[in-house]
Design brief:
- GO terms for molecular function: oxidoreductase activity.
- This is ER-bound oxygenase mpaB/mpaB'/Rubber oxygenase catalytic domain-containing protein.
- It comes from Soonwooa buanensis.
- With 399 residues, this protein is an all-alpha fold.
- The chain has two domains: 297 residues, no CATH class; 46 residues, no CATH class.
- Helix content is 66%, strand content 0%.
- It is built from 21 helices and no strands.
- The protein is globular and about 65 Å long.
Length: 399
């Protein structure tokens, strides 16, 4: 792995240049004031071949030495009750993991975390729309980033499963006080971190043709940084597009929230952005490692759209078709035209109609509802959708 050196192989590709000169990349630069260059490439490039070695060692010491259910119970106990660091029977890797995650970094500001949490809840159903139609769908445009998804059976499991898992994680890490040690959101960070490690080790063990030189390590630290920029920068940009009211403190809080979640999940904190300017600059460099959509990307996009036709929360097929139409329109509103075309998302009549309705609704809602009411209504709506997904999504199976 040490012999490989990541290069900005796609900086001259048409999809890269179009995104940053005419697409959402241009909007991100103008909005954030970012200065786009490769001057810091040498700082970030090594992370393409680095991963969460602490999490990987825990999986080897715990999950590979007992049944999956027993290992999960062990981790759950340590999450909720902590680790006895003086117990010689406890694997050293577990002590390293929990020493790191129970240690509060010097830069952490709990007041900012709370503001970020409040913004996520205030956003209400807007948040879930953006996560689905901007962050998740937009991520499918990056072919190498999708490789672990494909190899871990994302298409076979279907979009319902991925939506439920993503939503379950997102809701639980963005609630009030969720990230304090031993709390529920903290637990979601640890378990998700170990799922990533488990998946990475399985991919490397079972995939003979994994192309480390070009794809990086599976679920590598640089790709993880880009994923979490989706939860912060892209999420914030989507809120802005839908005219959700955001204060400067909310914005700072959102980046701080996802920096801490990233820290808990094993991403080096020196590559996690503090604001939208840094996030855009970091994202610019990473996108030069990624080719445009491939056939797998198109299959993932189609699976996400067709999930609307399978949802059991709507009784009639015409309701499901209407829901799919609304999401297609939102894809065309939130993503740029070239991204939609690459992903094979069909064009529809009046694609921006629902987005215009949402913008009007948001203007009225944020004008007349108090902040406390915004949080209450938004959080309740998100938790209702999550409950619906958890009732219907297939359960995890491990072998």
């Amino acid at each position: 792995m040490q012999d490989f050196q990541a290069k900005p192989n796609f900086q001259d590709s048409e999809h890269f240049k179009t995104f940053w000169s005419n697409g959402n990349g241009k909007l991100l630069q103008e909005w954030s004031g970012a200065e786009l260059s490769f001057k810091d490439w040498g700082k970030f490039a090594p992370y393409f071949y680095q991963c969460d070695e602490v999490g990987d060692q825990v999986v080897k010491d715990v999950y590979f030495k007992s049944s999956f259910s027993d290992a999960t119970s062990t981790i759950k106990n340590y999450i909720e009750n902590g680790v006895d660091f003086n117990d010689p029977e406890i694997a050293e890797s577990l002590k390293v993991l929990f020493k790191q995650t129970e240690s509060i970094p010097d830069w952490l500001d709990w007041n900012l975390i709370e503001k970020g949490s409040e913004l996520c809840q205030i956003a209400g159903l807007n948040a879930l729309i953006i996560l689905r139609d901007y962050v998740l769908m937009g991520g499918y445009d990056y072919a190498y980033l999708n490789k672990p998804l494909i190899l871990t059976g994302a298409l076979k499991k279907g979009a319902v499963k991925r939506l439920a898992d993503t939503l379950n994680f997102w809701v639980n890490v963005t609630r009030k006080d969720a990230l304090h040690v031993h709390k529920k959101g903290y637990g979601f960070c640890i378990t998700t971190r170990l799922i990533h490690s488990y998946s990475r080790l399985m991919i490397l063990e079972k995939t003979k043709n994994w192309d480390t030189k070009n794809w990086g390590l599976p679920i590598n630290s640089w790709d993880m940084m880009a994923t979490y920029i989706g939860f912060s920068l892209m999420f914030l940009h989507g809120l802005q597009k839908l005219e959700v009211q955001i204060t400067d403190e909310d914005e700072a809080g959102l980046f701080h929230l996802w920096k801490y979640i990233g820290y808990l999940i094993g991403i080096p904190d020196d590559i996690l952005p503090n604001d939208k300017k840094e996030a855009t600059e970091f994202f610019y460099m990473w996108t030069a490692t990624q080719p445009a959509s491939d056939e797998d990307s198109k299959h993932l996009a189609k699976s996400l759209l067709d999930e609307n036709l399978e949802t059991p929360t709507l009784k009639y097929q015409f309701q499901r078709r209407n829901l799919r139409y609304l999401h297609v329109g939102l894809n065309w509103f939130l993503l740029d035209d070239e991204t939609n075309k690459r992903l094979g998302i069909e064009e529809v009549k009046f694609p921006f109609a629902f987005a215009k309705f949402l913008k009007l609704r948001n203007r009225l809602f944020f004008r007349f509802a108090s902040r406390e009411k915004q949080i209450q209504i938004g959080a309740s709506a998100q938790e209702k959708v999550l409950d619906d997904y958890l009732k219907t999504a297939p359960r995890n199976k491990h072998h």
